[in-house]
Structure formats: C-alpha cells, structure tokens
Write a structure and sequence with these properties.
alpha/beta; eight-stranded mixed beta sheet
C-alpha cells in the first residue's frame, strides 16, 4: 500500500504545529511515556490550559482551536492513554478512571500541578476532564466540558441506540466510530460533523491509512469506555465537582445528545452553558474560533473571580 497520503498529512500537521508555535515533546512517569505538544511556559500571567482530545483522535485535533487562542496563553495538548505517541498498555488504562489516573501522572510529570490550571476536554476527553475535576478539585481553576460522554442523556441519539443493538447482538466489528473503508470513514465524518467536510479522496485515504493499523486498539478502548464501569462515569461523579464548569455543545450532535447539557445544568446550577447552532459533535473542528472565544471568556471570568475572592479574604 502506498503511504504517500499518510506521510503528507503528518507533514501538514507538523507544519501547522510549527506555525502555531507548538512543540512536540515527551515526558515520563516511571516507564510510562506521554507525548504532548505545548506553547508558552507555566510562569505566565494566566494559568495553563490542558486540552484532552476525544476517542481515536490525538493532540493535533486541537490545532484549529489553538490557532485562535492568545499567543501568550500557555497551552498543553496531550495524547490520551494509548493514543498516538503515548504508551499503549492495556484495558486498565483505557477505562475512564484509568485515563484520569494517567492524566494525573502526566500533570505531575510536566509540573502543571505546581499551580491551579484550566482543563478542557471533548467527548471521551470531556468525560475524563469531568471525572478529573471530581477527583482533583484543588488542582483546577475551572473545567470546560465540550459535548462530553459519560452522562445519562434524556434523549438518545441514533448512534447510542445503534450501540445498544451492537451490544445485544455482539457485532463487535461494526462500530461506526472505527471505520475500515473510505465509505465507512465518510459515514463517520457525517456522523460527527453537521457541516459536510467535502474532503478530497486522497485526503480521505490518508486519514484512513493513519487509522487502520490502530483499529484493534480503538476497539479495545471503545469497549472499555462504553462498558459498565465507564459508561456513566461523569454522571456518577457530578456530585463531587466543585470547580467552576463551562459546557459547550453542538445543537446538532448526533453522537451524544445535546440534552446532556440540561443534565449538567441541573446537577451543577452555576455552570455556564453555550449551545452552538448548526454544529455537530466535532465542535472544535466545526467552530474553532467561537469555541476559543467561549473558552477564553470563561478563563478570564474565573481569573476575575479568583482575584476578587483574594481581595475579600
């Protein structure tokens, strides 16, 4: 198989990271290796921002958003456990609680725990971010949950109903988020994006080639995060979240229904909710400028609140 398209996509991502001032790096926690990209230093005026990507993505999914963040904002994008350049181990690290433990190790390994920081995650990463906020509240200034998984949704999407059918029939091969052909990849993109991407056939081929050799790993992760231990992890930990919360959701999300935002609002009355019209599950890809503005407005508001609290105390 010709991997030219795959190599071109990798070179484009490297070029984009370079242009945005992001450097790819590694850190270790014992024998475990994390791969991440970062810009800026922890000593800046604003607290750092750590970004957690979704299932089967990588640190580079945040590139469109980072483009619209202030250049002086210290930002860190990490490859989630087993994804891209981060160590691939086994199921114990792929459950939501296993991922939270590994991300905490990453935070310690790069010194993010030396002062409170902001955490944002999308989809699976949103589930992890929410549970992290529940488990380590003292480390965070605030957390942003972008269409997070892990809730009990008042309305279910066709995708969730399809998953239940797959679970009942044990058809482990036919997971819509794990494509094996260009046609299945196109179907996945339609599922995740409200606005059609209209990608060139060669780009689709390159994206698929990038994924195919990871499909067994993706299946292992997927079965962990939809299994009984992880399926409702965020829901089960909402009562423990005390840090300020922001929720961003695409109104046309076909993966996890936007009704999840009302669940978060009911459990966390002070959380800020932004619902984006004409936007699906891939909020960061579809609305990067708007998402970056919402994120920075939330971060600025929390800084003002922190300063006010300090003065009053």
């Amino acid at each position: 198989m010709d991997h030219a398209e795959e190599r071109i996509i990798e070179e484009v991502k490297k070029f984009w990271r370079l242009r945005l001032g992001l450097r790819a790096r590694y850190s270790r926690s014992g024998s475990y290796r994390f791969c991440y990209s970062s810009r800026g230093t922890a000593g800046g005026a604003a607290p750092p921002l750590l970004l957690l990507h979704g299932f089967s993505a990588s640190k580079d999914m945040w590139l469109p958003l980072v483009k619209h963040l202030p250049r002086d904002q210290h930002v860190v994008c990490v490859d989630m456990p087993g994804h891209e350049g981060t160590t691939r181990t086994g199921a114990q690290d792929y459950s939501i609680h296993g991922q939270v433990t590994r991300i905490h190790q990453f935070v310690q390994s790069v010194g993010l725990d030396k002062r409170p920081f902001y955490l944002a995650g999308t989809s699976m990463g949103g589930n992890v971010a929410g549970v992290y906020a529940a488990r380590y509240p003292g480390q965070l200034c605030g957390v942003t949950l972008i269409c997070p998984a892990g809730l009990v949704y008042p309305s279910e999407t066709n995708f969730i109903r399809r998953l239940r059918e797959l679970e009942n029939t044990r058809q482990g091969e036919a997971i819509p988020l794990i494509p094996s052909t260009p046609e299945e990849l196109e179907d996945m993109l339609k599922l995740c994006c409200y606005t059609p991407l209209h990608l060139h056939r060669q780009v689709l081929r390159g994206l698929l080639d990038n994924r195919l050799h990871n499909n067994d790993f993706y299946k292992e992760v997927f079965m962990e995060i939809v299994g009984e231990k992880s399926r409702h992890s965020l829901q089960e930990n909402l009562h423990l979240i005390t840090t300020p919360v922001q929720v961003i959701w695409g109104m046309e999300d076909q993966v996890v229904d936007v009704s999840g935002a009302s669940v978060l609002k009911a459990s966390l009355p002070n959380c800020q909710v932004a619902l984006l019209d004409n936007c699906g599950h891939s909020v960061v890809l579809e609305r990067p400028r708007k998402t970056a503005k919402l994120l920075m407005d939330f971060l600025s508001a929390q800084e003002v609140n922190c300063e006010t609290a300090k003065k009053l105390s």
